[in-house]
Design a protein that fits this description.
- This protein is α+β, with helices and mostly antiparallel strands and about 270 residues long.
- It is built from four helices and 18 strands.
- It is about 15% helix and about 40% strand.
- The protein folds into two domains: about 110 residues, Diaminopimelate Epimerase, Chain A, domain 1, CATH 3.10.310; about 140 residues, Diaminopimelate Epimerase, Chain A, domain 1 (Roll), CATH 3.10.310.
- The chain has an 18-stranded mixed β-sheet that branches.
Length: about 270
């Protein structure tokens, strides 16, 4: 499945439970040359009426608390597999319970993330072309860097340096660069992400988009609701409100599209 270019290998947890996956198997399956290929692996299992359980692993085999795009995909897949009602469900993740639902007849879905503290300024030095840098936790940690020209950012180099900066030790952080999108009739801003666990640039980041939207709103650069185009070209919409230092009722709407189904030859798992 793909969420605006952020792609995942999904498995039905009833057939291949979370506990059976080793880090080595996850890395092999997510390898883009010798495996299926993906930014991560997700196991999806029905929990009880109207509730599905999503467990997310990065492509390096490490387990992460959650992933916004994986949650959008999980919503669509849970409805497709009859695990929950498409008009409204709860999704259990390692960082909490999300309220989610399918949107329209296509592949869109939306989710309400837990309230989080607004992005805070970092003490790190800005480089040429960077206007502001803040940090927040939207399920997982994110740095948001507002830049003058997004296409000129060295995402692998600068992103890796910030991801591993001692200021964010020991776990590190995801890094999101956001810049204005000139003459774009659908979105005023665009975003690029260096993703922890993938250790590379990915084409979209749902929770990073939410963090960026609230960082822009908090800094007076934009107003919610806000539409942000991912580097894949797909557009996310973020809504919510700012109240007493908190991001309240943050909603993310984006793609959760099934690309193909199959069986892994070596593991025999659908």
């Amino acid at each position: 499945m793909t969420g605006s270019g952020n792609d995942f290998v999904f498995v039905d947890g009833r057939e291949a439970p979370t506990e059976r996956w080793t880090a080595e198997e996850i890395r092999a399956l997510c390898d883009r040359r010798t495996g299926v290929g993906g930014d991560g692996l997700v196991t999806l299992t029905p929990a009880n009426a109207g509730v599905a359980r999503m467990v997310y692993f990065n492509s390096d085999g490490s387990r992460a608390g959650m992933c916004g795009n994986a949650a959008l995909c999980s919503t669509r897949l849970a409805a497709r597999l009859g695990m929950a009602d498409e008009t409204g469900m709860r999704l259990l993740t390692d960082t909490g319970v999300l309220e989610t639902r399918c949107v329209g007849p296509g592949w869109a879905a939306e989710l309400r993330l837990p309230d989080f503290q607004l992005p805070e300024p970092t003490s790190l030095m800005l480089e040429t072309g960077e206007r502001a840098m803040t940090w927040c936790t939207v399920g997982v940690p994110h740095v948001v860097v507002v830049v003058d020209e997004l296409s000129e950012v060295d995402v692998p180099g600068r992103g890796k340096a910030l991801r591993n900066d001692p200021a964010f030790a020991p776990g590190g952080t995801n890094v999101n660069f956001v810049g204005r999108s000139i003459e774009d009739v659908e979105a005023d801003w665009r975003l690029r992400t260096y993703e922890r666990g993938v250790e590379a640039e990915t084409l979209a980041c749902g929770t990073g988009t939410v963090g960026a939207a609230f960082a822009l709103a908090q800094g007076g650069l934009a107003r919610l609701p806000l539409r942000i185009r991912s580097w894949s070209g797909k557009v996310f919409s973020v809504s919510g409100r700012i109240e007493a230092g908190w991001a309240k009722e943050p909603w993310l709407c984006g793609e959760g599209r099934l690309v193909f189904e199959g069986v892994t030859a070596e593991l025999g798992i659908a």
